[in-house]
Amino acid sequence: MTAKALESVSHRLTPDSTVLLLQNGMGTIEEINKKVFPDPLHRPHYMCGIISHGLARKRDAFHVSHTGIGTTIISPVLPREAHSSADEEELEWAPSTKYLTRTLTLTPPLVAVAETPSSLLLYQLEKLAMNAIINPLTAIMDCENGEILYNYSFTRVMRMLLIEISSVICALPELQGIPGIENRFSPERLRWMVTQLANKTAKNTSSMLADVRSGKTTEIEYINGYIVRRGEELGIKCAVNYMIKNLVLAKQQLAKQRVSGAIPIDVLGGSKL
Question: What sequence ranges are listed for the domain Ketopantoate reductase N-terminal (predicted)?
Fold first, then answer.
């Protein structure tokens, strides 16, 4: 969806432009580069961020309601060829990136802070892990966030998901050399973070469940789907995340059919069983 949106305005973007991405999940930049800016010489600069503000969609695609104060963490995106903190210190950010960073951090309602690319990556991965549990489980079972904590079967699935997620994150090449990664992204700590967030938002409806109910495309490909893809790159099997991803995709498709009143296709070609 993000790639499609950027494609519509790609003629307005130059190598001097900076695009800020604020969304759940990961892997969007790789998709944008592949589909919209395949030539590195013509790509804009990228920034990413995560927010904890409360937001609610309006019918108009370009407006949202600000329902709760939170924080915003932003950072320029480090080029793939640069991985270390030393590389970060040597890079000179584009003028448009500096301008956007300064403007956002000086806007009080956003409560925005700028971080280094490596620090933001760790925050993104923590949020990814939490979203990979709460969002799909609530979407599949059509329940509030807090309900996943008090069901034995939920907790069993949660643990299997977290073992795979932890294994993939700890093996990511971009994190190698950073101290404390195994502890920070251990299944136990990730489970504690999920529990804290689910308790804090116990009566909330996850964004993925809201999308499924309204027949919209979810972000599952950039959440559990991202874990599966990175696992494949690293030779780590993520069977539980793969299953959860496809269950959400199936429910998403079913909801779209119900919303649109689609007529089922006879995949058997009229044959009798």
Answer: 2-76
Residue 34 phi, psi dihedral angles, 5° rounding? -70, -40
Model confidence at 177: pLDDT above 80: yes
Task: Write the CA distances from 38 to 9, 30, 41, 45, integer angstroms.
Answer: 15, 10, 9, 14
What one-character-per-residue DSSP string does 48-99 give?
EEEE--EEEE-SSTT-EEEEE---EEEEEPPPTT--SHHHHHH----HHHHH
Please state, rounded to an integer, the average pLDDT across all residues of the chain. 90
- Neighbouring CB atoms inside 10 A of 66's CB total 11
Q: Which of 135, 141, 133, 144 is nearest to 218 (CA)?
A: 135
Confidence band for 62, pLDDT divided at 50, 70 and 90: confident
The C-alpha R_g of the chain, in whole angstroms, comes to 20
Say what the pTM is.
0.88
pLDDT tens per residue across span 76-132: 998 665 555 555 655 789 999 999 999 999 999 999 999 999 999 999 999 999 999
Token pair for 21: 């991405």
User: Where would I find the beta strands (DSSP E) of the chain?
Assistant: 18-22, 45-51, 54-57, 64-68, 72-76, 112-114
**Which of 268, 219, 269 lies closest to 248, judged by CA?**
219
Q: What domains appear along the chain, each with residue ranges and CATH number?
A: 1-115 (3.40.50.720), 116-260 (1.10.1040.10)
Local confidence band at 220 (pLDDT 50, 70, 90 cut-offs): very high
Which residue shows structure tokens 């915003």? 72
Amino acid type, 9? V
Instruction: From 96, 94, 114, select the one nearest 104 (Cα to Cα).
Output: 114
